[in-house]
């Protein structure tokens, strides 16, 4: 199974129309009962300066051959942010249907870089698979080496592992971020059967995932912070920075950061000391 680009495009456009109100875009709402939330197709077409038929064909995915000017006009009318705009263009353009991507491998030099880091760090690949990690990341999040390779996956852990709900102070925000990133990643890799199977599994197994998936939110993994409630050292407020590899943009190194001389810095030091005294964990 692969991504149905036409269906995905239509759902995405309808979700973005639904979040706009006539008064927000300078249209007069005469108070008549509206059958759909947000803008009608006709209103969106008018704002974009394209014919209604042209826009309907785009939203219904009848063809993926639209000019740059049409895509630009629709993007502006929908007020898409840069991440949404890139996603829209990717869905609205023809896809050559290449062979499924090869299995990802982490270079030895990157593994050494992880091992030499004094902060939790790990590498995420396609479909939120955790490809490599250091001992502090395992101590903070979970012992990835103790999991079957299939379960070393952030989305699967967040939604199907009860322990993850206790680990994050704001699990709801973490879950929303994971879904928004996975949707973006699935469009970047439409021929990856592993991503399609993961999404199908989570749609079946998690009502919370289904609810978030239907929102069509998008978010790239760049930087931010999460508050962890670690069972041994307590509350740790950690930032993170994402470094995407130039020669393999589907691999991203996630490194946590901590404010110097803060309670979280103390907690992270305690975590490192606890990890050093624990039975050896495998860092991969």
Write the layout of secondary structure elements.
Layout: H1 5-18, H2 41-48, H3 52-59, H4 68-77, H5 82-92, H6 108-116, E1 121-124, E2 130-133, H7 135-140, H8 154-160, H9 162-167, H10 171-188, H11 193-205, H12 207-213, E3 223-230, E4 234-245, E5 248-257, H13 263-277
Antiparallel strand pairs: 1-2, 1-5, 3-4, 4-5
Helix pairs in contact: 2-3, 2-4, 8-10, 11-12
What does this protein look like?
The protein is of the alpha+beta class and 284 residues long. 46% of the residues lie in helices and 13% in strands. The protein has helices at 5-18, 41-48, 52-59, 68-77, 82-92, 108-116, 135-140, 154-160, 162-167, 171-188, 193-205, 207-213, 263-277, and strands at 121-124, 130-133, 223-230, 234-245, 248-257. Strands 2-1-5-4-3 form a five-stranded antiparallel β-sheet. The longest helix is centred in the middle third of the chain and has 18 residues, at 171-188. The radius of gyration is 22 Å and the shape is elongated. The relative contact order is 0.12. The model has no long low-confidence stretch (mean pLDDT 90).
Task: Give the SSE string.
Answer: HHHHHHEEHHHHHHEEEH
Task: Give the uncertain stretches in residue-range form.
Answer: none
Q: Number of helical runs?
A: 13
**Order of strands side by side in the largest beta sheet?**
2-1-5-4-3
CA radius of gyration: 22 Å
DSSP summary, beta strand count: 5
Tell me, briefly, the overall form. Answer: elongated
| Largest sheet features | 5 strands, antiparallel
Mean pLDDT: 90
Q: N-to-C terminal Cα separation, in Å?
A: 30 Å
**Percent of residues in helices:** 40-55%
Tell me the fraction of residues in β-strands, as a range.
5-15%
Judged by helices, strands and strand pairing, the structural class is: alpha+beta
